[in-house]
Amino acid sequence: MKILRFAINRTIKYGMLEDDTIRVMLGTPYTYFRSRGKSLRLTESTYKLDEVRLLAPCLPSKIVALGLNYRKHAEEFRLQIPNMPLIFLKPSTAVIGPEDKIVYPKTSKRVDYEGELALVIGRKARAVNRAKAREYILGYTCFNDVSARYEQRDDGQWTRAKSYDTFAPIGPYIVTDISPDNLKLETYLNGELRQSAQTSDLIFRVDVLVSFISNIMTLLPGDVIATGTPSCIGRMLPGDIVEVKIEHIGTLRNYVVAQK
User: Which CATH number fits domain 2-54: 1.10.1670, 1.25.40, 3.40.50, 2.30.30?
Assistant: First the structure.
């Protein structure tokens, strides 16, 4: 099932996508996910995909992101493979949706794309056992961990580099009925393939991440865990188009523009 969030006539709704038709959802997907065994309720209202504006498919209270979670990415920077997940936070104010603009800050000398698989939490998760971790995942989506590389280098920690407005594109959909264990992930810059990997290469899988993170902080419905980027990250410039494409999910496309 593909869950999306969209705007139509100044109204924001959730829906389920079937081919190119959106069935409007009654309420939010989290209501029904929390009540396991209770089926999703859909209205009779429908729209065509080209009639609406897609938004980020969730509104996270926080984004928990992973550093160095692909072996080749760690090797790319000549860094030691971590023995536990290396996490950092991105703020909710950085979130944008598909087809939105990534704003290149005036003060940044280099801004990079980082294509990633992200998971969306479906119900409150606290101190979750690894064996039950996937029961808390609503589904999976595409993510771009946009990063100001020099700020990351100069600060010695990552908050400023990762937190600019528009630095967390998410979308286009949340897909609920797939396995995240061996998906093909690709990032394109202006139509040219720049990153390519399989999620089977993740050092820490999604069940490990949900358990590890929920034993540190409570995860709320709609929160996002971005599972890390593979090797071959690279620079974006104003005027560029960046696309994160994940097998069975779709393509997250965004446009880089200069800050005015």
Answer: 2.30.30
